[in-house]
Specification:
This is Esterase. The chain is of the alpha/beta class and 245 residues long. It has 8 helices and 8 strands, in the order βββααβαβαβααβαβα. A hairpin with a 4-residue loop joins β1 and β2. The two termini are 18 Å apart.
Length: 245
C-alpha cells in the first residue's frame, strides 16, 4: 500500500490544493476509489492521523482519496471559494490523471464524518449517476439546523442567510425528495452515536428518508462525536460498500 501526499494547483480554486491518497500496490489494474471527506475542524491528514484507514483499505483493495476543503461545507461558498465544484468536478479527473483509479460508477464511493458526512450525502444525491454508494458518519445532515444553532460566521460565509437553505441545492432533505424518483439511486448509509450533539438532526433526516421511501441503511449505538467512534464505523462502511471482488 502506498501513502501519497499530493499537492497540485487547482484551476477551480485558483490556489495550491492538497489531497492524501492511499493506493494499493497492484499492477495492471484500475482501483475502486473511496473519496473520504474530513470534518469542519480537520484537514486532508485527519483520517490517516486519527484512524487506521490505511490498514483497513489494504485488506479491501480500495484506493482512498482525501482532499482538503477547509471550512467550506463542500459548497460553492457565498463568501469564499468554489469547493463543491472543486471536489465533485475537478478533483476526480485530476486524481484519475495522477493515479490508476477506475472511472466506472460502480467503483466510486464517498464517505465522510460530520461536515464530510454532509458532503458525501450531498454528492451522492446530487450526482447519483457518478457514485454507487455514499456514507455519512455523524453527519451534519440538517444544515439549516446547524446554521441556526451553531454555524455563526462559518454558516454566513458558506450559505449566506440560513433562511435560503430550505429547498435549495444545499438542503439534503430536498435532495432526498428529488433523488428518490431517479435511477440509479446510490446506496445510502447513515450512522450516528446516541450521545452525539448531531444525533437529533440525524434522526430527523432518517425519518424523512423513510417517510418518502428512500432506501437508507441506518445504524445507531452509544457513541459521541469523536475519533474512536469513527475509527470503528469506517470499518463498517468499508464492509458495507458494494466492492466488486
Amino acid at each position: 500500500m502506498a501513502f501519497i501526499q499530493c499537492e497540485f494547483f487547482s484551476e477551480t480554486l485558483q490556489i495550491s490544493a492538497a489531497m492524501n491518497v492511499i493506493l494499493p500496490q497492484d499492477k495492471d489494474r484500475l482501483f475502486p476509489t473511496l473519496y473520504l471527506l474530513h470534518g469542519l475542524s480537520d484537514d486532508h491528514s485527519a483520517w490517516v492521523r486519527q484512524t487506521s484507514i490505511e490498514r483497513y483499505a489494504l485488506s479491501r483493495g480500495i484506493a482512498v482519496v482525501m482532499p482538503a476543503v477547509n471550512r467550506s461545507f463542500y459548497t460553492d461558498m457565498k463568501h469564499g471559494a468554489k469547493y463543491w465544484t472543486f471536489v465533485t468536478e475537478e478533483l476526480p479527473g485530476l486524481a484519475r490523471s495522477f493515479f490508476p483509479l477506475s472511472s466506472k460508477r460502480e467503483d466510486n464511493f464517498a464517505a465522510g464524518l460530520s461536515m464530510g458526512g454532509y458532503g458525501a450525502m450531498k454528492w451522492g444525491m446530487t450526482h447519483p449517476d457518478r457514485l454507487a454508494a455514499v456514507a455519512s458518519l455523524s453527519g451534519a445532515v440538517d444544515v439549516q439546523s446547524w446554521a441556526d444553532e451553531r454555524g455563526g460566521e462559518d454558516a454566513s460565509n458558506v450559505f449566506g442567510e440560513a433562511s435560503s437553505i430550505p429547498g435549495s441545492p444545499a438542503d439534503l432533505f430536498t435532495l432526498a425528495e428529488q433523488v428518490v424518483s431517479r435511477r440509479p439511486i446510490p446506496l445510502l448509509y447513515q450512522c450516528c452515536g446516541t450521545e452525539d450533539f448531531l444525533y437529533e438532526d440525524n434522526v430527523r433526516f432518517r425519518d424523512h428518508c423513510r417517510k418518502i421511501g428512500l432506501p437508507l441503511t441506518y445504524e445507531e449505538e452509544p457513541g459521541d462525536h469523536e475519533w474512536g467512534y469513527w475509527d470503528t464505523k469506517i470499518q463498517r462502511v468499508l464492509d458495507w460498500l458494494p466492492l466488486r471482488r
